[in-house]
Specification:
By secondary structure, this protein is an alpha+beta fold. The chain has one domain: Winged helix-like DNA-binding domain superfamily/Winged helix DNA-binding domain (Arc Repressor Mutant, subunit A, Orthogonal Bundle). The chain contains five helices and six strands; from the N terminus they run ααβααβββββα. The strands form two sheets. The chain has a three-stranded antiparallel β-sheet. Strands 5-4-6 form a three-stranded mixed β-sheet, with no helix packed on it.
């Protein structure tokens, strides 16, 4: 758990048992995870505690939220140095077959030149198709 605690501490998050468990679960996922997914994984955990844990992780830039158009917000770990600035954002891929959402960290969101007096709040780029697992 030392690695998990070190990750939490590096983002100014006080380690607790639930935070350690949630971070460990997120670290083991290949695809983004929803609050509902975590509720099923931690059946005895309080939904509010899970939500607050995710909120704390997001506020401290340990995870980022993904609105992939499915109606369920998903969460994925940020890269070690990520500050969730628009220039650091990457594309997400939603598989239309298995409904899994993947971070495509190597593909950055193109820069957006807004008109004068417009300011960028957030960017969300989701590509939809069939993932490698479902293609086979």
């Amino acid at each position: 758990m030392k690695d998990v605690d070190d990750k939490l501490i590096s983002r100014n998050i006080k380690p607790t048992a639930m935070r350690e468990l949630v971070l460990k679960a997120l670290s083991e996922q290949r695809a983004a995870t929803s609050l509902s997914d975590l509720e099923h994984k931690f059946e005895n955990a309080d939904k509010v505690t899970l939500y607050r844990t995710l909120k704390t992780f997001e506020e401290n830039k340990l995870i980022h939220r993904i609105d992939d158009g499915t109606g369920s917000v998903k969460y994925a770990l940020c890269k070690e140095t990520c500050q969730c600035q628009p220039e650091e954002l990457h594309v997400h891929f939603l598989c239309v077959t298995c409904k899994q959402t993947y971070c495509l960290n190597e593909i950055t969101v193109p820069s957006i030149n807004l008109p004068v007096n417009f300011s960028l709040g957030s960017v969300n780029m989701v590509v939809k198709g069939i993932c490698a697992n479902c293609k086979d």
